[in-house]
Amino acid sequence: MLPFDAKIALKSFQEISKLLSSTMKLPQILNFILKEITKVLDLKGGTVRLVNPKTNSLQWAASIGISRRYIEKGPVDLDKSVQEAMTGIPVLVLDAANDPRMQYPKQAQEEGIASMLTIPLKARGGKIIGVLRLVTAERRDFTEDEIDWACAVGELGAQAIMNARMFEELTKDLNYFKGMVDVAKLWD
Description:
Blueprint lengths: L5 H15 L5 H16 L3 E8 L4 E8 L3 H4 L4 E2 L13 E3 L11 H7 L3 E8 L5 E9 L7 H44 L1
Antiparallel strand pairs: 1-2, 1-6, 2-3, 4-5, 5-6
């Protein structure tokens, strides 16, 4: 594990901020955030999962360094997996294979996940819209600086998610109204 370097972390944070101001493409944003955070924190990988209130679960949105088999292991239930994170608190699991808070400890062990840091994705007003899960191949106790930086990146990511969702809704509405105008023109 490389020591946390504040200069590299700041540069990465700036790069993420630049991307967020240049695109509304959610997959591109989430993949870039995961790439940067795994590089800065020297991680095995990470995932972004977003809350699906209809199913009371977390839906996969993006990942890096994690196998498709692990991603598709089963539903990630809000009630079983990340209750603490859903209150807005980062959650560190030092031993993913044996921690009772893990919903899928056997699959984590098979994937080679030793430790997991779950960062809540907080939107405006503190609403939790998902989680950023950061995983290591070796047991690791993240430093306070690492957790604080990951939380700051998570907040940027949450705002990007909300902005992308609003943009998508506005685009749908605009297309709907354009269609209505086109139909109205037919009647003229």
